[in-house]
Amino acid sequence: MSPRGWTSDHLVATVEALCAVVVIVARLLRRRATGTRLARTWNDQGGWITALTGVGVDELNADLGSAAGGWFTWVDEEEPIAAGERDGRRRLHDEPS
To answer: Transmembrane ranges (predicted)?
Structure first.
């Protein structure tokens, strides 16, 4: 337990909620046709999010190549995932395996 009383369960729940909020915001941006969409990638350093206007993830991935350590995907097309999971292997509300 941390000095502030947070356990690892509290931190996992906070990260899971943040992942869900990011997906909700991304879907709202797309629905409102702002011209901006959120994209993200995962690598050994963590998750990276960018706001793209006027460029697609295919173009971004082509420009970056392997420099990003992973491929960017549209956040609004994904399901929220549990903290520590990648590539949608376990969705936020799935039962733990």
So the answer is: 12-29
The answer to pTM > 0.70 is no
Domain contains 40 = yes
The number of folded domains in the chain is: 1
Residue 49 CA to residue 70 CA, distance in Å, equals: 12
Residues 6+ apart with CB under 8 A from 56: none
Report pLDDT digits (tens) over 29-80. 889 988 999 998 877 777 788 899 999 999 999 998 777 778 899 999 887 6
90 SS3 class: coil
14-42 pLDDT per residue, tens:
666 677 788 888 899 889 988 999 998 87
Give the full edge-to-edge strand order of the sheet including 46-53: 46-53, 36-43, 73-74
